[in-house]
Specification:
Elements (H helix, E strand, L loop, with lengths): L8 H5 L4 E4 L2 E5 L6 E3 L5 E3 L7 E5 H16 L1
Antiparallel strand pairs: 1-2, 2-3, 4-5
Length: 74
């Protein structure tokens, strides 16, 4: 990846959706921005993505679902 002068590697990592670590491949959630292991324990299955995992982690999906249920109950 080519970076502009003065740009740090952390800034370049901001747009990267996956990375390899000592525990294996990790994927970045588009909602919370955290990296989680790229497997079915942390991401739902999705047919339309290249890695077959949803772009949002399960925790963010659950949080959004429960927040909309609680708002509707008021």
């Amino acid at each position: 990846m080519r970076m502009r002068s003065g740009a740090s590697s952390a800034a370049g990592e901001r747009f990267c959706m996956s990375r390899w670590t000592e525990i294996g491949q990790e994927k970045r959630c588009i909602t919370c921005g955290e990296y989680w292991p790229a497997d079915a324990e942390f991401f739902e299955a999705a047919k339309k993505t290249r890695d077959r995992l949803s772009p949002r982690c399960i925790a963010c999906i659950v949080e959004k679902t429960w927040s909309s249920v609680l708002v509707a109950a008021r």
